[in-house]
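Task: complex structure prediction.
Instruction: return structure tokens for all chains below.
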Amino acid sequence: MTDENRKIAFICSKGALDMAYPALIMGWAALGNGIDVTIFFTFWGMDLITEKRIDHLEIAPVANTSMKMGMMGVPGNLGIPNLMGVLPGMLVDGGAKLYGCKMSVDMMGLKKEDFIDGVIDVVTAADFIDMSEGAQIIFI
Amino acid sequence: MGTRAIAGKVVQVNEEGYLTDPSEWNKEIGLEIAGEEGLSALTEAHWKVIDFCREAAKGLGGKSPTLRQITTGTGVSTKELFALFPKGPAKKVARIAGLGKPEGCV
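Output:
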């Protein structure tokens, strides 16, 4: 299979900073390699496309067994650079297709105007299943 | 590792077809590879990106810079970069510029 025929679809269901990066960075890498990229945001993953939330993603210290005592209290999310201000826009400009989950939107009382620029639409789970036909799906 | 003739010159390439010695590259080679990559012509804007990558690669061990380094270094927007080198600018730019694949992720 050549890269030009490949499709990757990410499902982003988490709103922590360390769970936001994998899809966005891998999606960006995929675009750079000429692969079609679709990202479906659902549940806490809605924070990644919600204007008021996107700049406030953090790393969870509680119930995180990788968070050792010495790391507690290190300011600025352990010094991990926060690219949330630029990454989603880069993905949109690179041609990634971003969609919000209908059920999460209804449940959280969100509107399309609450989202960052470039989110194409709010779609149902069944819509996502249809549009990701033939894609490699990565759930995060 | 192997060799291949491009634009009348024999150059060293790796198994993915990237030139392994940037000094073997010249503009004619860049043009021919661009044709193989589906670009019928290289405009001034293409060369701006290619020239930047050639220069940046000197400090990157012959590897092409990342897309973000290209956009911040040249002032070419992400949208424009994807329009200039459609369907995979990271790989296409590296190949056309006679450099290795970028090693960074963003």
